[in-house]
Amino acid sequence: MLSKTLLTLFFLAGIAPLFSGAQAAVPGQMPAQVTSEKPAPPAQDYSREAFTIERYSTRISAENDGTGTREITAELKMLAEAGVKTFAVLTFTYTSANEVVDIDYVRVRKSDGTSSRPRATTFRTCPAK
After folding, report:
1. What's the pTM value of the predicted model, to 2 decimals?
2. What is residue 2's three-state secondary structure?
3. What does the pLDDT look like over 40-53, one tens digit per residue?
């Protein structure tokens, strides 16, 4: 029974290339390489967007005493006036019962290479109820 099973497996292995569309190997001839590489997707065009997020990261650390910090770092690129209006006032929502918002640093880099720091009045904290 075992030899009949092995013979069937060898037979199926021998005819499998005929059904799969692959070419059988011929002695002395290099087999054709079949690649399944997909072409790279076209680059997305963001020129019509108001802004793009260049970098965004969140770092959370927890201490043994139950305290912790959450640090959010973002780099946005404004592509239109609508993007500037969207981020004219930065809003941070938090739970006032157990969270405190500290804004360490905000910088605006202009297209001419200069940078400025916005006034503190452009930040709004919104404690959740």
Report:
1. 0.55
2. helix
3. 777 888 888 999 99
